[in-house]
Specification:
mainly alpha, Non-ribosomal Peptide Synthetase Peptidyl Carrier Protein, Chain A, about 55% helix
């Protein structure tokens, strides 16, 4: 989780990722943010993220993103 939080803070230092639960739904992360985030996650965690995985529930909070990464690593 620490690595993910570092990626998120580097991406958007103005967002409190520990408290935010609607990153996508509230438009806090835009398409460019998601693209950058997906690339960083794939590099840092050695996982593949497909277009089908790009669903709001996978990216609405740091916890959701972390759980999503864990599910990819289990595949």
């Amino acid at each position: 989780m620490e690595d993910l939080m570092e990626i998120l803070q580097d991406l958007r230092p103005d967002v409190d990722f520990e408290k935010e639960t609607a990153l996508i739904d509230d438009g806090i992360l835009g398409s460019f943010d998601i693209t950058a985030l997906v690339n960083e996650i794939m590099d840092a965690f050695d996982v593949e993220i497909s277009m089908a995985d790009l669903e709001p529930e996978n990216f609405n909070s740091a916890q959701a993103i972390y759980e999503f990464i864990q599910s990819l690593q289990e595949k």
